[in-house]
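User: hey, got a sec? need Pirin family protein folded
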Amino acid sequence: MSNIRHMIHGLTRDIGFPVRRLLPAAAARTVGPFVFFDHMGPVEFDAGTTEGDVRPHPHIGLATVTYLFSGAMMHRDSLGVVQRITPGAVNWMSAGRGIVHSERIPDDIREQKVPVHGLQMWVALPADEEICDPLFRHYASEEMPTAQVGGARLHVLAGSAFGVSSPVVTSSPTLYVAGSTQDGAELEIPADVTERAVYVVKGEVTLDGERLEAGTLAILEPGAAVVLKAVGETVFMLLGGEPLDGPRFVWWNFVATSKDKIEAAKEAWNNRNKEVFPDIPGETEWIPLPVH
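Assistant: Yep! Here you go:
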């Protein structure tokens, strides 16, 4: 019997640059606390343009987790944080009751034609924290612990895995690991986390002999260890954690335990309520609510 519950191939969307959206999906809306998963790039952006810039936009009820393989992005938010996001670092922004941020492509990345390639995740906050004060935490790449297990090199980004623990502060039990392997390397994925998924960023793997191509998210059956084997050089992610403490509503950039909270956030953003969604210092743009 297969230990893969669902195979999700995602849909490619154009948000000013191509992204593959894996979560939410019809087969599974969440994996542990993860409610949103975009794989962006790799893509090069032209100098002297704003292609790829994500203009100021609001969030509630979630934490954004940005992780890059190449390139860079410049984060700015309504807390006044300005942070260059670079490969291997973890950037954890907890929106709580409301935050506004932008992510722009730095000029040097455009001019040098460095491909921007990475993952953008959203983690739903626990119900008792969804209206907490917003915060932003940056963890440099060298702060992230690594483990060498057989032929796999693992970068533990959140939670504890393979004998090491990440310094990243999370609001609920979370597992997030970046891995790379050489051809033929094997890695046993333990069953010590209730909900788990494997995503292949580059290359190809097998899970208990079942092939998984790049761009595929495999959600694993709980309670069973699974053996990952690399077919050629691969880059993959392991994500999951404990199940959410209840269902979530997701609309545009808002995540909440009730539709009323979503409606209140829509009204606050539409009315330019600065108490809920303050301005970002140095930013002047504003994106209206989508019509849908």
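Quick note: Residues 4-241 form a domain with the Jelly Rolls fold (CATH 2.60.120.10). Let me know if you need anything else on Pirin family protein.
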